[in-house]
Amino acid sequence: MPASVPLCLGLDTAGVQVPWYFRCPISLELMRDPVTVSTGQTYDRSSIESWVATGNTSCPVTRAPLADFTLIPNHTLRRLIQEWCVAHRSMGVERIPTPKQPADPDLVRSLVAQGPGLPALRRLRALARESDKNRLVMATHETRAALLEAAFGSGSGAASEELEAEAMAVLALVGLGEEEAVEVVGREERVARLGKVLAGGGSLEARVNAGAVVEAAALASGADARAVLGAAEGVMAGLVTLVEEKASARAVRVGIRGLFALCLAKENRPRAVAAGAASALARRVAEGGAGEPERALAAVERLCHAEGGRDGVVAGAGGGPAAVTALVRAMSGRAAEHAAGALVAVVGGSEALQVEAVRAGAMGQLLMMVQGGCSERAKRKAQHLLKLLRSAWPTTDCTANSDDFLQHY
């Protein structure tokens, strides 16, 4: 049997001609999940969702305004496409799976209306875990407000704790909007509750969920609200503990994301350094197991400029040379800008570490940043670091051309 033909079949691929009405008018690929919009035209769900997400409000084919953005599954066309795939199986065409439809908003509303009970919360949690689409359906103020009340209830006893933990787990998946973030940060007892759980007042899962809620509240709030969260007892230290967790990759990711969100506020950076965040984050970066490298390095860069932060980063990475090597290595990825910014702080006062940075390949990475497609801010950081490292650049025949280039910086 021939090798399976990919689903992005063109007009005539591997001898199989795909009927034009099975192809999405946007992507021109075989539709996996055909949906019909208000103008009556049918598209593949992922293609039309991307079209709308980029700000388009008209139908791609007719150019008529979309009366609404409701996408109605075209079950008949999907079944015809599946039957066509089966009929051409001998030619290597694979049958497309039946797509999982998003949660029914009426079902979500019904579960919320039942009030805070474990069966309803467990069903909501299962829906939220299932897909991003379900979480979008659930991300309404009505649902989030009900989850907040359940997660921060004032009851007592094992049954109440179990219910609160379940609600917090759903809230961690669904996230918070600005209005709900105010309802968390604006109430002292709720902030204290998050700090207590993060400080060890529950299972690892409970601490991870509390950390996710802290991140969501911080990102949906302003600097003042982030400062309130960062100053709460147990919050900063609890997030650092998650970063240092060895048994859970999710815990590490949540800890990094939470520290990044809180460190957006300048007031929180000394607190983070005091809690050991600089060392913990640098250790993860050096080990290559950050899980969230861009956010980890963005936080490291900010903490390098707080009192004691630079020393914490160096110690966490295993010493100056190890810290330099880790940051130079990170300049080849998406976090290059933040790695360069942190490297400036690490090597700025040490000629020996500047030499170490050159030896580790920093010049090549920086030249690529300056000449490549980085942002203007990233290029400015790279240029600043190039100037800083020029005195450590070896004068040899093999570097003559690069040295000529450096005269511009």
* Largest beta-sheet characterization: 3 strands, antiparallel
Which strands sit side by side, in order, in the main sheet? 2-1-3
Count of discrete alpha- or pi-helical segments spanning 4 or more residues: 23
- By helix and strand content, what is the structural category? mainly alpha
- Average pLDDT, all residues: 87
Extract low-pLDDT stretches: 1-13, 395-405
H/E element string?
EEHEHHHHHHHHHHHHHHHHHHHHHH
Percent helix range: 55-70%
Q: What's the CATH architecture of the largest domain?
A: Alpha Horseshoe
As a percent range, the share of strand residues is: under 5%
The CATH homologous superfamily of the largest domain: Leucine-rich Repeat Variant
| Integer count of domains | 3
The count of strands amounts to 3
* End-to-end separation: 60 Å
Output the CATH topology of the largest domain: Leucine-rich Repeat Variant
User: What is the CATH first-level class name of the largest domain?
Assistant: Mainly Alpha
The Cα radius of gyration reads 26 Å
- Overall 3D shape: globular
